[in-house]
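Before drawing any conclusions, I needed to go through one protein's amino acid sequence and its backbone structure tokens, quoted below without any editing.
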Amino acid sequence: MKKNTPNVATHLLVNPEKYVLKTGRFLRKLSLDELPNLINIIKGEMDFVGPRPALYNQDDLMELRKKSGVHQLKPGITGWAQINGRDEISLEEKVNFEIEYLNRKSIGFDIKIIALTFTSILKSDGIKH
């Protein structure tokens, strides 16, 4: 992101393209911007699969997660909501997918999500910016 970019979720920016650097666009397209999260996995702060971490100012998302019990899951690099819409779904839809993940959580389901994530990355599915 360019200097002086407003500190809000990308989908809330009026014209997000004007804030993204060319290198950032490339990294985002291939989801390489997620690689630093591997450090968080090693530290035990994240999992490969789980709900994406909320931004500090996404109070509405955090409240929906608390009401549904999703907040008890460790955040992940990818998740069921990400492969079912990523940036294109509403917060309510996102939390509904996260609730489904909470109820179906298993090694097999995680493997399915990881495989579908790679397919989504290759197709650039659901990326708005």
User: Anything to note?
Assistant: Residues 65 and 119 are 27 Å apart (CA to CA).
